[in-house]
Amino acid sequence: MVTGASKLRKQLRETNELLVCPGVYDGLSARIAINLGFKGMYMTGAGTTASRLGMADLGLAHIYDMKTNAEMIANLDPYGPPLIADMDTGYGGPLMVARSVQQYIQAGVAGFHIEDQIQNKRCGHLAGKRVVTMDEYLTRIRAAKLTKDRLRSDIVLIARTDALQQHGYDECIRRLKAARDLGADVGLLEGFTSKEMARRCVQDLAPWPLLLNMVENGAGPVISVDEAREMGFRIMIFSFACITPAYMGITAALERLKKDGVVGLPEGMGPKKLFEVCGLMDSVRVDTEAGGDGFANGV
Asked: So what does this thing catalyse (predicted)?
């Protein structure tokens, strides 16, 4: 079986395609993305923090929360789309970064990004971000690279910088070039303030592959998949593609329940439909083919 990491690395190495990854945050959102045929997925740190902890993305989720969620998502379909996962700051010094990378590898994660914010970090699309020194950032990148090399893993190391707010564009490019020189596979400049800046970044770092984090109503402009492809980005993640519509849908349903006394689900949208999205018929087939009779009378 080809690992998700090997699939992701092969795509980056052998094609020029843009990999579009919806931001999933739990098993159901991941199942929907898989069933709709997306070629990659992204486990969002903001969505993981909101769904598992019920908290804002302020660096409160740690390695256990992130690794556990990533492992579940990555293994829903071992033959399915590769999973890229947020690794925030690496959760500590070099030893902790190394431990985090090893746990992501063991979890089946295909790629991860690690950033230069201080440990007391926040969502990349909030104001007031602060970053560590270049030396400390490169220590994180170096620890991650040494670990994946020691474990002979194909996991894709994505170097992210959040230095734009504090230090400006040129410092971001300087940091990303240094991370690239240490062996990072992909770059990510978080929080572009214009389409022109995004295009310039691709050009300034070419031919190194770059990832674009598209957050609608975030810190920067809306860039479509077609625009990102034309600019030359290689990976595009939509961090809030699932968690925000889930919030909107749940809010509307509960408001209707409060007002009308029913949720008002459409015809056909019952338990069986939801379970089918989550692999019901695969489970039935496994039991039946093994000689079990647990589903002899249907479901």
From this structure: (2S,3R)-3-hydroxybutane-1,2,3-tricarboxylate = pyruvate + succinate
Q: How many Å apart are CA 6 and CA 78, to the nearest integer?
A: 12
- pLDDT score at 37: 97
> Which token pair is 297?
């009378």
pLDDT at res. 297? 87
Residue 223: predicted pLDDT: 97
**CA-CA distance, 60 to 45, in Å (whole number)?**
10
What per-residue confidence (pLDDT) applies to 1? Answer: 79
- Structural domains in the chain, sorted by start: 4-247 (3.20.20.60), 263-293 (no CATH)
End-to-end CA distance of the chain: 31
How wide is the angle at C-alpha 183 spanned by C-alphas 106 and 2, nearest 5°?
40
Which residues partner with 189 through β-bridges? 161
Inter-CA distances, 54 with 51, 57, 71, 164, Å: 6, 10, 20, 28
Reduced to 3 states, what is the DSSP secondary structure of residue 23? strand
Give me the sign of the Cα torsion angle 211, 216, 218, 224: positive
Average pLDDT along the chain, 299 residues, taken 10 residues at a time: 94 96 98 97 97 95 97 95 97 97 98 96 93 98 98 98 97 98 98 97 98 94 98 98 97 96 92 91 93 90
Sign of the four-CA dihedral 140, 164, 121, 26: negative
Dist CA 155 CA 34 (whole Å): 20
Query: How far is Cα 78 from Cα 254, in angstroms, rounded to an integer?
Result: 35
Tokens matching residue 250: 């749940």
Contact 278, 31 (CB under 8 A): yes
